Amino acid sequence: MSNVKLAVIYYSMGGTNYQLSKWAEEGAKEVGADVKVLKVPELAPESAIESNPAWKAHVEATKDVPEVTLDDLEWADAIIFSVPTRFGNMPSQMKQFLDTTGGLWFNGKLVNKVVSAMSSAQNSHGGQEATILSLYTTMYHWGAIVATPGYSDPVIFASGGNPYGTSVTVDQDGNMVEDVQAAVKHQAKRTVQIAEWVKKGNQ
Q1: How many helices (H) and strands (E) would you count in the chain?
Q2: pTM score, two decimals?
Q3: Which end of the chain has fewer surrounding CB within 10 Å, N or C?
C-alpha cells in the first residue's frame, strides 16, 4: 500500500500556526506519511502587513511555502488544518479557501478524507475550541472523517487537555505558553493512522 498523503494547511500571521504545522509534518513523517505543508492565500492588504513588523517578518520568512490549491485537497488522504482564532471562528483567509471547495464537494472528491485541526489564541479561553469546531462543521458537509485526539494519550493533558485538537495560548510577545509539540506530533500520527485504516478498507 502506498504511503498516506497528508496535507497540512495553515494560516499564520506571527508564526505560531506555521510552527504547529511544521511539528505536525515531523510527526507524520515519523510514521511514514508523505507530507505537504501549505499556506492559504493572504487576503489582507499589503499596507496592513507592512505596518506590523512581526507579521511582515513572518510573511517574508515563509515566502517559499507553497500556497494550497484544490489539487492538493484531491491529492491528500488526510488533512490537518492549523489556524488562529478570530472571535471564536476561523480566519477569513481559511474560510475563503474552504469556500472554493464546492466543485470538489459536489463531485464527491472530499468524501472520506481524514481531517483534524489545531488552533491558537492570545488567552486560554480565547476561542480555540470554538475555532476548531467551526472548521469541523465544514468537514461534516464534505463527508470527511474527523479524527480528534480526544484523550488518547497523556500528552493531551500536558498540553492543556483540548480533546478536539491541539490548541495553544500565545503571550503578548508571541511565545507559546503551553508545551504542545508532543501533542501536535501525537495528533498528526493519529490522523495518519486513521487515514491508513480508511485507505486499507477502500482497497
Answers
A1: 9, 6
A2: 0.96
A3: C
